[in-house]
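>> received
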Amino acid sequence: MTQVLITGAGAVSCLGVGVPAMWRALCAAPDGLPERADDPGARMPLPLIHMAPSGPGPGRATRLALTAAREAVADSGLDPRLLARSPVVIGTGGGNADHWERPLDPARPYTPAFTVAAAIGAEVGSSGATTSVSNACSAGGFALAMAADMIRAGEADVVLAGGAEAYSRVALGCFNRMGAVDPYACRPFHRDRGGTVFGEGAAVLVLESAGHARARGAAHHYAALAGSGWSCDAHHLTAPDPDGVQIRRAMTDALDDAGAAPGSVGCVVPHGTGTRLNDEVESRALGSVFGDLADCPPLYSLKALIGHTAGAAGALGAVAGALILDHGTVPPNLALGADRDPSCPVNLPEGGEEPLDGRHVMVNAFAFGGNNVSLVLEGRAA
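>> returned
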């Protein structure tokens, strides 16, 4: 089977611009709190969000994605001519929400919202297919899985894939209406968690067949995207199925696809949104997949730092997973201490970096409608 390598990575979030800045922040575990959205139209009780740096102009999700894509391409060392026919697959839940969440102005021309993938294709000069994946909060994870399948099927040698999400007044208002926003912060697995908190961000990865990377003399790769598993609860519009059967299926299918045993997984980047049911269901599912929660590998709770980046969450989780494999260490989680929820007895290392014990990292992304995807990344051979 064709091996799919991650030869370039780019990221932007509330932690800053660039993959090095992201890794420094993960290791420092800053206790950053969200801010109130700078939007006079955000007339809601909790207009909280982790904002990412972005310049002015329309198409905020596109601008975030372009920042990440430029870094990823430069990081890969690819000759731009090799991107001329490379597909682009980007996951986003709301696209450029600022194109349609605006005061009505008859004089302002209509602008489509879901143009993020096309904008990246134009930026890198690609005439390959551009695809926008929009199945809510698992979109970025599905985009990466689809891109890897293209390479494994021989349809492409190089694919730019990832996810992007920007502030959406409608999305944040809906979560307020559902009572699903935590009044303090995004606190996965915390006993007093009251919902999630959104964050802006984008992550783009250069996925490349091992043969193509070898032929061009690629200097470095972070990890391989070794396997993926998809499933759907078909249970509820917003809530996961409490039995977690399909979540377990996504994880086990990803392991099978990668040819990896549960014991080889040294870290899991969970979906872990901070909503009460989601964290409990995922905790039980992890215990089932890995035999027992006592045997579960350490988790790295990314959303505790950057919030829930929706369609970008799976892609940013994949960047975190690739960095964990590349550095061989698991960063410290934000300390929960005695505030950890006893109904979620997962392994959340605190206080300092830990050596990675295992060759694989699992990344989970689950979404409304029960859309689940798990990815398994594989580190370089010793």
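>> The chain has ten helices and 15 strands.
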